[in-house]
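--- STAGE predict ---
source: upstream dedup step, 1 unique chain passed
mode: sequence only
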Amino acid sequence: LLILGRAGTRTRLTCCGLATTARFLSTTTTDGPLPVNVEHYTSGWCIDDISDFTKPGKYNIMTYNKISPKGLAVFPQDLYNVSAAEEQTNKSNAHALLLRSHKLQEEQVGVAVRAIARCGAGTNNIPVAKMTELGIPVFNTPGANANAVKELILCGLLLGSRRVVDGINHMKDLGSQGLAKERVEKDKSMFGGREVKGKTLAVIGLGHIGAGTARDAASLGMNIVGYDPGLSIESALKLPREIALADSISSAVAGADYVSINIPYIKGENGTHGIIGKDVISHFKPDAVLLNFARGELVDSEAMKQFLDDGQGRYISDFPDDVLWNHENAIILPHLGASTAEAEDSAAAMAAETIRQYMEKGTIRHSVNFPPTSLPEQPFQTVRITVVNKNVPGMLALITEAFAKAKINIVQQINHSRGDIAYNVLDVDPVTPDGAPVSLNELQKEVTMLEGVLSSRVLFGTPGIGYARNVNGEYFV
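--- STAGE serialize ---
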């Protein structure tokens, strides 16, 4: 809610049956005051409890899981309050959520939440489809843990080449019998292996992790075959020059000594569940080594077991598998891919920076459900307003018409869409042609309550204010 008033006055308001107090301050720029009042009181379901969670004038970030302190340091303390969810009795006033592996439930996303970021690449633990319906962008951190995962893949490559784990277990057994020194030379022939130099590695998926794996494996003297139907220019530039690109998974793995899968897990029809199944495995060499540090569900465990039973192949993964966990030709590790301090720091810092760019400027990058939106410099003495709406015909015309009716000039605007969502950024001149002061509260309500609009933000004034949502035909601020 926005109320015209003198700077410093206090007015009693009521929202959703709860009374609260709003403080109105004059907002200034380097050239003096702008004749607008755009301050909302902090939004949320429990307005009376806001003092338990936040201080006026800051963005409120709530975290699930333990997030790297180095990453959280990206949030300036003068602009952000960062709190762990388990420390809060009232969780309804968070402006953004930051998490790692926490399984986020819809009821944990309060009405004030305007962004969610995961410190990691996958977002299977977030109800992305529902967040899209609510007009909330979900962000991830692609590439932040790529080096950590790549290094573990290279470790798996060597574990699949030499019977290192078997040798370690054997030496422990001998040690317990006091026979280690006596047998160490005699028994080493039990654990023979092969070198990776000159061997062929098929890399399925050439994103951040796949490209890095291909590049470093090539430096070990390996021949690289790659497959990725959606290969980006950025990833292509990171590939070794000698790589051979295949036109299918089957053709990529045929003749490969090692196969590394680095693709996302996608459920449903045309998804990737069990994509490494009987048909693909039938093209494997009898002694091929499969490296799966992407997702356990990508591999058909029964088909892989049959392959391991019939030949000299091996399976190395850091995902639990009820079928293969104890197979003599499988090495199943804990899920260690991104479990390094450096990866956790990098992912948290990237997630925090992504949230900052969205909260403060409206920029969208690394979102899994919103369109990428790189914004130009905001014109001097303008107010930035963002609108999230369903991607249906005629919405942009309705939104701009509301600004025209209010006699507010749009200096520049951007409209991008992705699937069912459209995202608009409008920089407006807050002064009418006749110089009269304008109030944005009624305009924001009118725009937000247009059929098809999900939410709007006024990026001006005190951090955390100016957010409004259309929730099933009801106006929430």
